[in-house]
């Protein structure tokens, strides 16, 4: 509870909870406006509209006790975002299984339709979302509350930073998901929020699917991004969820980080090294950040990229140690990288920690 708003609420949490309950029972407006700010997430600018903490408590209860139990069971298993037990790892495992199934049938021959919803959250039409909520929930008071939260976003769009908005955004294209899997019936289909794919052996079939999906999107007020929506030959590889994915000659499915994510981490390390030298950050904070990135990379086929990033990390902190003394030295032991077996089908693993050489 490091935020002052959280501390103030928890100081008198019983009184605050009773006040929220009375406001809801008496039909008072609980919306208190938004705290708007921007942040960069994986190289993309996000416009955040966070709610005040008392309203966030109400929205949390609304989400977990009404929206999730009513809406999540209607979603297909290939819908991977913002659902307990799912996420990017789940989405990538599902995609790898779909690619493996395709290889067993057709080898590397075939195509994948990659789709993206343009400026998804900012362009979500309110009426289809309201209709979906009204059909899923039975209590008219809960329906009215969620409709009020949707209207508070403006005339169109749902803001990032609100849990009910995340659930509604995940479920909004649910009609498209069921239409694709039950009517179009491609070999494989998956969606992660505003990114989706279809796999099939025929390019012409996927082009027809794209046309029909575009019509369904128009009915829901969703616009496809023409720059990112395309049909790609599987043998050439493709990028999905910031990962580069392709078959080897033997049918092994390789998942690598895209080049932009590697470049972004290199720039981030150099910037954090300057912040450590200026006393803005501590080496321990940088280490935690780097180990977090490294842990994500260990799930991918990124052995060489991690070794190169380790070398940059050590180089930066060796220079800081020479210039600034012990306070700039990393705190852990050596990063031990196992030799990567060039002919094996699995990426080599690495143990965590930082180089002792950087502390000398």
Automatic annotation (TrEMBL):
Protein name from the UniProt record: Conserved domain protein
- Report the domain of life of the source organism: Bacteria
Its source organism is Collinsella aerofaciens (strain ATCC 25986 / DSM 3979 / JCM 10188 / KCTC 3647 / NCTC 11838 / VPI 1003)
Q: What SUPFAM superfamilies does this protein's entry cite?
A: DNA/RNA polymerases
The record's region (Disordered) falls at 327-360
Q: Which Pfam families match?
A: RVT_1 (PF00078)
- Residue intervals of the Reverse transcriptase domain: 1-245
Task: Give the CDD domains listed for this entry.
Answer: RT_Bac_retron_I (cd01646)
Taxonomic lineage is:
Bacteria, Bacillati, Actinomycetota, Coriobacteriia, Coriobacteriales
For bias type Polar residues, the affected ranges are 341-354
């Amino acid at each position: 509870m490091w935020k002052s708003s959280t501390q103030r609420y928890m100081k008198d949490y019983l009184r605050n909870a009773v006040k929220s309950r009375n406001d809801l029972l008496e039909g008072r407006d609980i919306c208190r406006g938004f705290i708007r700010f921007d942040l960069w997430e994986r190289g993309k600018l996000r416009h955040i509209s966070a709610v005040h903490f008392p309203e966030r408590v109400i929205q949390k209860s609304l989400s977990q006790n009404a929206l999730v139990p009513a809406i999540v069971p209607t979603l297909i298993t290939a819908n991977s975002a913002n659902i307990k037990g799912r996420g990017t790892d789940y989405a990538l495992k599902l995609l790898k299984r779909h690619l493996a199934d395709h290889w067993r049938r057709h080898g590397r021959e075939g195509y994948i339709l990659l789709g993206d919803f343009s400026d998804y959250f900012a362009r979500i039409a309110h009426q289809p979302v309201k209709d979906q909520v009204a059909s899923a929930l039975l209590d008219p008071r809960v329906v009215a509350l969620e409709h009020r939260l949707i209207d508070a976003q403006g005339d169109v769009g749902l803001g990032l930073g609100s849990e009910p908005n995340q659930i509604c955004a995940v479920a909004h294209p649910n009609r498209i998901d069921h239409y694709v899997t039950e009517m179009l019936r491609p070999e494989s289909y998956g969606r992660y929020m505003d990114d989706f794919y279809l796999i099939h052996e025929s390019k012409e079939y996927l082009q027809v699917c794209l046309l029909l999906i575009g019509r369904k999107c128009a009915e829901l007020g969703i616009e496809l991004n023409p720059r990112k929506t395309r049909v790609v030959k599987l043998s050439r590889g493709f990028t999905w969820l910031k990962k580069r994915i392709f078959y080897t000659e033997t049918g092994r499915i390789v998942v690598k980080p895209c080049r932009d994510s590697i470049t972004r981490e290199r720039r981030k390390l150099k910037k954090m090294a300057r912040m450590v030298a200026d006393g803005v950050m501590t080496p321990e904070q940088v280490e935690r950040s780097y180990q977090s990135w490294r842990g994500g990379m260990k799930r991918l086929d990124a052995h060489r990229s991690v070794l190169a990033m380790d070398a940059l990390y050590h180089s930066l902190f060796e220079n800081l140690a020479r210039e600034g003394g012990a306070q700039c030295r990393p705190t852990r032991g050596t990063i031990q990288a196992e030799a990567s077996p060039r002919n094996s089908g699995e990426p080599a693993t690495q143990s965590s920690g930082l180089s002792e050489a950087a502390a000398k």
